[in-house]
């Protein structure tokens, strides 16, 4: 059986994909793309050809089965359309695109050319989130009433040396907040119908936000409260508490709390609070239990899933439509802040448009 031939575009986030690909039997890393000194060093370490122009890589590398796209968001549509025309399946990093219009075009291009489109919301491959989703869907919490989410941390000063991170589209909402919003949609199955947002940029005084407070209404009823900032010393973020990425300092804290009519759960500690069957109400002491979960590497799990897609053994677990739904919520959140009013989200209409 022939090897699965892949290429990786972008040597920042894409570097881990490329390294992990080299460890998978039956997978051949054909080439990588990048246009700076870091990309040159990493291509040498990986011992694969480096293309400074990703278009040339797509044109010249023959018989590619799949391409992993970790380029700037604004390039995603162009690259996916190029791959679709050549019949190359793609894993495109989150967000699926910079705009809803681009995301729609990508989904339609994949469908028209019959390629598989996997969107890189890698947290959906986390054992922790899969278990949280199972607990919620089992009804153990009763009917959901609300969710409280925090993403609070301070990024290194060197992080902002890349100027695009100081302009619109480079702030924590689109880079980090999109992960939390996608996580919310994945574990709860809720449909967001409106967003009200207040954003500030007082920490660094750049054009892009550094702090945001968001209220989300759902079709099903539960209300979500979400607060994030990337300039505040704090242990309360997914990256600092889930312990899935060794880059981040780790803490025994929680970043999400999910509330139901029967019980509430803290994540990622998986501490569940409820009353015993004979007592209910604030005069009685809550009972606490804890669920144990085996850790995994979600990005490696995502890559292995992509390889299974290329082998014809699986369909995308995170579809283009999934990525579009998450992006549409993020777009509404940012629009609300700009317009200083609540913004409605018609996801039903959006889904109908994509499936026509």
From TrEMBL:
Residues 4-121 form the Gfo/Idh/MocA-like oxidoreductase N-terminal domain. Gene3D superfamilies: Dihydrodipicolinate Reductase, domain 2, NAD(P)-binding Rossmann-like Domain. It comes from the Bacteria. Residues 131-265 form the GFO/IDH/MocA-like oxidoreductase domain. SUPFAM superfamilies: Glyceraldehyde-3-phosphate dehydrogenase-like, C-terminal domain, NAD(P)-binding Rossmann-fold domains. It holds the Pfam family GFO_IDH_MocA. This is Gfo/Idh/MocA family oxidoreductase. It comes from Neobacillus paridis. The lineage of its organism: Bacteria, Bacillati, Bacillota, Bacilli, Bacillales.
């Amino acid at each position: 059986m022939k090897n699965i031939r892949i290429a990786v575009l972008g040597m920042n986030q894409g570097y881990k994909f490329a390294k992990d690909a080299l460890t998978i039997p039956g997978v051949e890393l054909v080439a990588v793309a990048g246009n700076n000194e870091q990309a040159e060093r990493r291509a040498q370490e990986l011992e694969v050809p480096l293309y400074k122009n990703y278009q040339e890589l797509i044109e010249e590398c023959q018989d590619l089965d799949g391409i992993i796209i970790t380029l700037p968001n604004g390039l995603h549509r162009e690259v996916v359309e190029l791959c679709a025309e050549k019949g190359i399946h793609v894993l495109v990093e989150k967000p699926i695109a910079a705009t809803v219009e681009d995301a729609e075009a990508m989904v339609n291009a994949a469908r028209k050319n019959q390629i598989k489109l996997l969107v890189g919301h890698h947290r959906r491959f986390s054992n922790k989130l899969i278990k949280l989703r199972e607990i919620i869907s089992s009804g153990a919490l009763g009917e959901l009433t609300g969710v409280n989410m925090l993403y609070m941390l301070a990024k290194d000063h060197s992080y902002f040396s890349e100027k695009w991170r100081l302009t619109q589209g480079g702030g924590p909402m689109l880079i980090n907040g999109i992960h939390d919003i996608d996580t919310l949609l994945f574990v709860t199955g809720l449909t967001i119908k409106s967003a009200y947002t207040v954003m500030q940029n007082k920490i660094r005084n750049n054009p892009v936000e550094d702090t945001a407070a968001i209220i989300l209404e759902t079709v099903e009823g539960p209300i979500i409260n979400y607060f994030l900032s990337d300039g505040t010393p704090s242990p309360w973020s997914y990256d600092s508490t889930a312990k899935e990425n060794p880059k981040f300092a780790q803490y025994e804290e929680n970043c999400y709390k999910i509330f139901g009519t029967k019980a509430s759960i803290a994540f990622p500690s998986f501490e569940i609070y409820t009353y015993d069957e004979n007592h209910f109400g604030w005069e009685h002491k809550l009972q606490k239990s804890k669920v144990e979960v085996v850790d995994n590497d979600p990005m490696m799990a995502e890559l292995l899933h992509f390889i299974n897609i290329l082998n014809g053994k699986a369909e995308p677990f995170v579809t283009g439509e999934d990525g579009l739904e998450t992006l549409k919520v993020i777009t509404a959140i940012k629009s609300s802040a700009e317009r200083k009013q609540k913004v409605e989200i018609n996801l039903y209409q959006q889904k109908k448009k994509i499936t026509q």
